[in-house]
Fold these 2 entries.
Entry 1:
Amino acid sequence: MIIGQSIQIQRILTFIDKLSKTDTTALIMGESGTGKELVAKMIHQKSSRAEKPFIPVNCAAIPSELLESELFGHEKGAFTGAQNCRYGRFELANEGTIFLDEIGDMPLHLQVKILRVIQEKTFERIGGTRPIQVNVRIIAATNKDLENEVKEGRFREDLFWRLNVVPVVIPPLRERKEDIPLLCEYFINKFSHKFGYSLQIKPEVMQIFLNYTWPGNVRELENLIERLYVLNEGGNINIKDIPERIRFGENSFQKELIPDDLNPFSSGIDLNEVLKEYEKKLILHALNLHGWIKSRAAKYLNINRTTLIEKMKRLNIKDNENED
Ligand SMILES: Nc1ncnc2c1ncn2[C@@H]1O[C@H](COP(=O)(O)OP(=O)(O)OP(=O)(O)O)[C@@H](O)[C@H]1O
């Protein structure tokens, strides 16, 4: 089930409906963990091939020297150790769907064979001469910029255009934050069946989730909820239960970058947090420069003494006992 109320997810659901009524090749693009395999499975399950196999192949996880035999199989005696004839995944997926995950990592010589399967619906097993006919729908996915891979010569342009007939782009979770509460609810519900108890996320924790950038996308959120189930036997989830990486992730990263005004903040800026840190630095600088005499430091900063005291309290700057 694909969860999400964002416009982007609603649009993807419409795409899935349309794609499941046809037999065209589809290309799903998105960062790791955004749900590419889930979308591919859903297209298959809603299609007329639903009763037939859905065969996923992670092209990046299988060493390139094994990938060809994994995909296309081999004849008996095709190479040392090939004692029996072996069916490849294309044959196993016959009448169903093959999901070629991480297709951007597929070696060029295999891209040619894939192109031929798309165009002619035939291939040969390794060591074989007899063309084998298959009726397989191909859905491919990638987290790479395939157009760029084409430019760099690592991906065949003809295959790119063949795959890119109907591109589906799944945006990262940080670009559809309105899906986060729904996804939390969905995973809490899912794991409550497995663990036999439930969790509640406090609003301040949800705020942290909304501020975080989720580089591992939905998979990271799902893993976090499972982890919270393992470590907390039910009840409320408080801020202290959340790993520091998520609690302070972006902020601790930014703190290191503050001295350099023009640093490239690759994943966005929490302006209030950065300004607060910068203000604290300037106030500490002024206080140190003037021996922690607040009236002088305030004058140096061109603010009132009372404003300085107020700011020191807010920024948690401990007084150095030097009263003026
Ligand atoms: N919108 C969603 N609703 C419910 N579950 C989701 C959603 N998106 C992703 N998931 C879940 O998140 C996990 C990761 O999704 P999936 O494996 O489909 O991602 P992927 O993009 O194929 O990742 P990778 O590129 O690393 O292979 C899965 O458990 C999947 O069920």
Entry 2:
Amino acid sequence: MSTPSTPASDEAVLRVRNLHKSHALGATPIEVLRGVDLDIHAGEMCAIMGPSGVGKSTLLSCVAGLESPDRGEIRVLGEDMAALDEHGRTLLRRRRVGIVYQFFNLVPTLTGYENIVLPYLIDGAAPDHDAASRMLDRVGMRARAEHLPSQMSGGEMQLISIARALVRRPALVLADEPTGNVNVATGRRIMALLADALRDAGSAMLLVTHNAEDAARAHRVVFMRDGLLLHDAALAGPAVTSAAVHDRLKELGI
Ligand SMILES: Nc1ncnc2c1ncn2[C@@H]1O[C@H](COP(=O)(O)OP(=O)(O)OP(=O)(O)O)[C@@H](O)[C@H]1O
């Protein structure tokens, strides 16, 4: 598979057009995404907020190539996900996309360090131990390197999972409620780490969050409602403060 290393400067790292996706609920399909459009450029963090069950995680799964949309277009680094086969999508995800999950998704039988180098191993690549070691220090988890996830707190597991997601300097980071299961202080640390890593690596990031303070770290906040994204010009750039996010959530009744 040929994966462009960097998109053309004006090309979005993530481009989504008219995305539709239904889930079968018994015999009745429920259309969760009804024409989602979204662009995220290099170095940009975009937060998505919206009521529970509206389809935020479904969007992330489609972007990651873990679920197939019914129709519409997803381009990651210019690559049309629908034109890739399953293997191509897997390679693109492994090599260019970092994913942070709400429930960490660490491999329970591997140590913290082994979890961090997992993205290399599942790709059949030699681990970059320098990068992994730097990442271990960056998330402050060196003392936990040899511990199993069962010996870690939720916050520690999430810090390890963030190191795993970022170790290959992904072009696109997908984070699904990364602070949803950690305490407030760790949540702030996690958001600062993600923002710093994004800036340093020039990655684009799609963040799903219910937390206005987390959303306020983004360059742009969009709201999902009725299967669509509401692009809110008032919530971009310096206007993105947690107070402004709170106000908008209230106006939208979310
Ligand atoms: N595999 C599936 N099969 C059937 N229905 C599904 C499936 N995955 C999700 N759904 C349904 O699709 C809808 C959207 O789910 P999704 O997890 O994307 O929402 P969300 O906005 O991320 O919610 P939350 O904020 O609670 O995490 C929900 O009604 C959910 O029950």
